[in-house]
Task: structure prediction
Amino acid sequence: KNIINLINQTSLLEIKELLKNIDLLISIDTGLVHIASVYNKNIICLYGQSLPERSGAVNTNVKFMCSYRDCSPCNDNKQLNGKECECPKCLQDITPEMVMEKIREILNEKK
Result:
């Protein structure tokens, strides 16, 4: 209902204050997820080129979503064979419907 997109509109200090008041953060694997985990917030974190086992935020309220393709993590493949991923199918595997299901899980846990 109250969805706010603040991409490129906030400083780190503003984000820190904002995160104190959110109910749920949906993000790709970025520093924002780690900052929100400090405040023990509900988080849905989407992984593509990396794996949650390697860089996931340490918080029991984080729900990780990762497709675990054969080429994952492609960051390793890039370092080994120098190839860039032309089409990040790993992120395309995570559908809006799958994210909505995670949102429903979090809302049901709060009841």
